[in-house]
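**User:** Everyone, produce a chain:

**Assistant:**
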Amino acid sequence: MHDVTSPPPAAPLLQSPLWRGVAWAAVAGLAALLVVVWTQRHAPLVWSLCIFLAASLGVLRLRSLPPLLACLLVVAALVNACGGAFRWFETIAWYDEVVHTYTGFAGLAAIGWLAARTRDDRRRVLVPWCAALGLALGVGWEVIEGLVGDLAWRDTLSDLVLDTVGAALGGLLARRALDAQPQARPRLG
């Protein structure tokens, strides 16, 4: 016979409905930015924001993802969109670095959670697995960046390091979040 123990203190933080509210506010921000870039007739940004908006709506439909992790992903879409729409990537020296780190963190926290939520063997290697996947995704992004613009080696290397660091931190959050979930434990006695 199994007894479900009370959730650890971190579990309510992961599942708080507040995170869905913040995520929906970020979706509203994305929609507002889409209107702005649409009126400016900036076609590449319109397409990017449509993708960010659709992806964010898809993330919010994933009930298997804790609300905190879903919120982190939607906010990642919003900070990327703001960087493009307001030209912060070009005008704020550190913005690109922060966004690379945060996007790797948010993305790999969610991916890591989904990849390891039913597999204890994956949990043991989750942090290095997330770091490696973050690096691979970062390389893919830099290839795309190179195809549509010019690539500077120092910026590329910095982006890849920050993608990897963010992804490793995301893996650590995913691991902690998975450990915080209540699990059925055998009843003694």
